[in-house]
Design a protein that fits this description.
single chain; 370 residues; alpha+beta; five-stranded antiparallel β-sheet; 9 helices; 24% helix
């Protein structure tokens, strides 16, 4: 078999043995051993799987757009996986244009980290409404957790209901848990564990991975589309562990007077500018420490403590963290202010507030979710 036709079973990239700094590199002896075992991994996937080390991905936005364009030209079922904790950061810009006439179902992953007080029926309807706002018309919406094998049965039944003897393309931005979800599907249908490389880091799947289905069609894992407005793109691996929830979020309630500020570590800032004293509820990973100070002192507090008391980011993780940019909102009803990739704060009464996030990271308001 020609080396150029061999693909890494972890990320799908073409294997090569000549350029150690390029994608798909694996030493010749490792390639020979892998071919004997029937499991060929590129060096990047090998180090990620065994040492939890990540290497930079050198694919351009055009590469990802090329793969998306291919989808619109196929007769296939599209499964759009989104991170329900970071819904807006998990939307693929303009996906409705790439899907074409193909049917689409939307899967909200990581539902296990949301507070149990959130009802699934309400959340499903909320997802459907937000999908419509983004120009998508999903045939169905499903909440799931890729870390819970028992929930994969429902997803598989949904795929079979709608695919009608077609290929199935799994699409999503980076960090939504797409490859973890597919690993669970493979484990349930073929008994193979951890075939696809997964990690917390953006850009793990580098090319399409085709998984055969019983009728000669394929379930196809595509690379995560890089969404530049995700917080994850500005952090190192240790800080990523802190901001990415791994278990159910415990809401943190603060009674604030006007002209008070909350800092979400050193990553974001919330200013209560004007309104009646009221409760504000923060939904972020449990390991993120929140600090309160006076609005008048907030700028100095941040400059003095960022990277120390206010962390992440930590200096040994990030060489240069972007400055925080301010977004002001006038709130009339129960509303969430969302810091993309980090979480949200729920405002319960009319107020004037401001949210700050690193330059390039979105801060938006939405109808209260919880």
């Amino acid at each position: 078999m020609n080396e150029e036709t061999i693909h890494c079973i972890g990320c799908g990239v073409v294997i090569q043995t000549d350029e150690p700094q390029e994608l798909g590199y694996t030493p010749k002896n490792a390639l020979e051993k892998g071919m004997e075992n029937g499991e060929v991994y590129c060096q990047r996937c090998f180090r990620l799987r065994h040492y939890n080390e990540i290497q930079d991905v050198h694919l351009t936005d055009d590469d990802f757009l090329r793969l998306l364009n291919e989808i619109g030209q196929k007769d296939a079922l599209i499964v759009n996986v989104v991170d329900i904790f970071d819904f807006y950061g998990a939307l693929i810009p303009g996906l409705h244009r790439f899907v074409g006439d193909n049917p689409l179902i939307m899967v909200g992953n990581k539902v296990d980290i949301l507070p149990k007080s959130l009802k699934r029926g309400k959340m499903t309807q909320w997802m459907r409404e937000r999908a419509h706002e983004a120009g998508l018309r999903p045939l169905d919406v499903l909440l799931t957790s890729a870390r819970k094998p028992q929930e994969m049965t429902q997803l598989l039944e949904l795929i079979e209901k709608y695919r009608d003897h077609r290929d199935v393309y799994i699409v999503g931005v980076t960090n939504v848990g797409k490859s973890t979800l597919i690993n669970q599907i493979i484990k349930q249908t073929a008994g193979v564990q951890d075939l696809i490389t997964t990690s917390r880091f953006p850009g793990t799947t580098l090319d399409k991975i085709e998984i055969p289905l019983d009728d000669g069609h394929f379930l196809i894992d595509t690379p995560g589309i890089i969404h530049r407005h995700q917080m994850a793109h500005y952090l190192g691996d240790k800080d990523l562990k802190i901001i990415a929830p791994h278990k159910e979020i415990k809401p943190k309630v603060y009674q604030l007077n006007p002209e008070q500020t909350l800092f979400l570590g050193g990553l974001a800032r919330f200013d209560f500018i004007k309104g009646e004293r009221s409760s504000f509820v923060a939904y972020v990973a449990n390991d993120i420490e929140i600090h309160r100070t006076k609005l008048s002192n907030a700028d100095n507090f941040y400059q003095k403590h960022v990277g120390g008391l206010l962390q992440p980011p930590r200096p040994d993780e990030v060489a240069e963290f972007p400055e925080l940019v301010r977004f002001e909102f006038s709130i009339k009803e129960k509303t969430d202010i969302v810091f993309a990739g980090l979480g949200w704060i729920t405002i319960t009464k009319p107020a004037v507030i401001a949210g700050w996030a690193p330059r390039g990271v979105d801060v938006i308001v939405r109808k209260g979710l919880v």
